[in-house]
């Protein structure tokens, strides 16, 4: 968990401006802090250099865009993230160990390897089956308190337990538990996934770790099943439904909204909310 508010502020700035030319000076200036001190603090908190972090996120988000927007050319995607055509191809292959063209050929297949369970093969439904389970909704702002993590989604259950125990006195019947996710674990190293654990609070909350998740239009997929099956279901939405839906994901990043959780039976009812333009 990140405990330094400056690091959270820096990450917010980076993820909101990934398709811009972001320099270390830009991020340090935004945080009103010395560049050299900021570089030391960022590396100590995240385990990555600020330059390496920005470059990695650009590579991974560009791959997500390639996966979700099949009609956008590889060259245009590379240019959107600050690369020339030739530089993007070589940088992509160095990071992902596959060329952009080869990645795109396999990105929307009907099955994939499971990043968390060795030897398990993911199988997806048809576009029509996902289409029947998805609604387009407008969601209002969520005022939340949050904790941010950079790590393995396998630690999510433990992190949620600690989070809910810490803030149990502020929960009521209207409280929503929300995850804000920034990565696709089929693309990002499973040990480097960035995500926020959130809980809705009163609009007048004075928590230091409060933020507002912005309103907007979302494609909402409702999941009712076992926790170990969440990843397969959601990858199906991203691999099959999203690229063929006619919608384009925007920059607000995705949300998982929990409706019911039975930890003993490993059962959950939740909404996967994909922000769309």
TrEMBL record:
<dbReference type="InterPro" id="IPR029442">
    <property type="entry name" value="GyrI-like"/>
</dbReference>
<protein>
    <submittedName>
        <fullName>AraC family transcriptional regulator</fullName>
    </submittedName>
</protein>
<dbReference type="InterPro" id="IPR011256">
    <property type="entry name" value="Reg_factor_effector_dom_sf"/>
</dbReference>
<feature type="domain" description="HTH araC/xylS-type">
    <location>
        <begin position="8"/>
        <end position="106"/>
    </location>
</feature>
<dbReference type="Pfam" id="PF12833">
    <property type="entry name" value="HTH_18"/>
</dbReference>
<keyword id="KW-0805">Transcription regulation</keyword>
<dbReference type="InterPro" id="IPR050959">
    <property type="entry name" value="MarA-like"/>
</dbReference>
<keyword id="KW-0238">DNA-binding</keyword>
<dbReference type="InterPro" id="IPR010499">
    <property type="entry name" value="AraC_E-bd"/>
</dbReference>
<dbReference type="GO" id="GO:0043565">
    <property type="term" value="F:sequence-specific DNA binding"/>
</dbReference>
<dbReference type="InterPro" id="IPR018060">
    <property type="entry name" value="HTH_AraC"/>
</dbReference>
<dbReference type="GO" id="GO:0003700">
    <property type="term" value="F:DNA-binding transcription factor activity"/>
</dbReference>
<dbReference type="Pfam" id="PF06445">
    <property type="entry name" value="GyrI-like"/>
</dbReference>
<keyword id="KW-0804">Transcription</keyword>
<dbReference type="InterPro" id="IPR009057">
    <property type="entry name" value="Homeodomain-like_sf"/>
</dbReference>
């Amino acid at each position: 968990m990140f405990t330094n508010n400056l690091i959270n502020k820096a990450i917010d700035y980076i993820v909101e401006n990934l398709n811009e030319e972001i320099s270390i000076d830009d991020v340090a200036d935004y945080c009103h802090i010395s560049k050299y001190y900021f570089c030391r603090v960022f590396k100590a908190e995240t385990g990555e250099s600020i330059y390496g972090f920005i470059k990695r996120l650009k590579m991974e988000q560009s791959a997500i865009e390639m996966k979700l927007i099949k009609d956008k050319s590889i060259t245009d995607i590379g240019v959107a993230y600050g690369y020339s055509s030739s530089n993007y191809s070589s940088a992509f292959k160095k990071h992902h160990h596959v060329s952009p063209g080869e990645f795109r050929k396999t990105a929307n297949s009907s099955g994939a390897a499971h990043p968390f369970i060795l030897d398990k093969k993911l199988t997806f439904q048809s576009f029509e089956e996902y289409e029947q389970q998805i609604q387009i909704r407008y969601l209002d702002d969520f005022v939340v308190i949050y904790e941010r993590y950079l790590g393995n989604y396998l630690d999510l259950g433990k992190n949620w337990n600690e989070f809910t125990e810490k803030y149990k006195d502020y929960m009521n019947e209207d409280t929503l538990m929300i995850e804000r996710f920034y990565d696709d674990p089929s693309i990002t190293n499973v040990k480097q996934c960035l995500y926020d654990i959130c809980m809705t609070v009163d609009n007048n909350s004075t928590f230091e770790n409060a933020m507002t998740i912005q309103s907007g239009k979302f494609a909402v997929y409702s999941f009712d099943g076992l926790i170990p099956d969440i990843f397969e279901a959601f990858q199906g939405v991203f691999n099959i439904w999203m690229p063929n839906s006619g919608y384009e994901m925007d920059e607000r990043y995705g949300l998982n909204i929990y409706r019911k959780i039975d930890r003993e039976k490993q059962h959950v009812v939740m909404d996967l909310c994909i922000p769309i333009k």
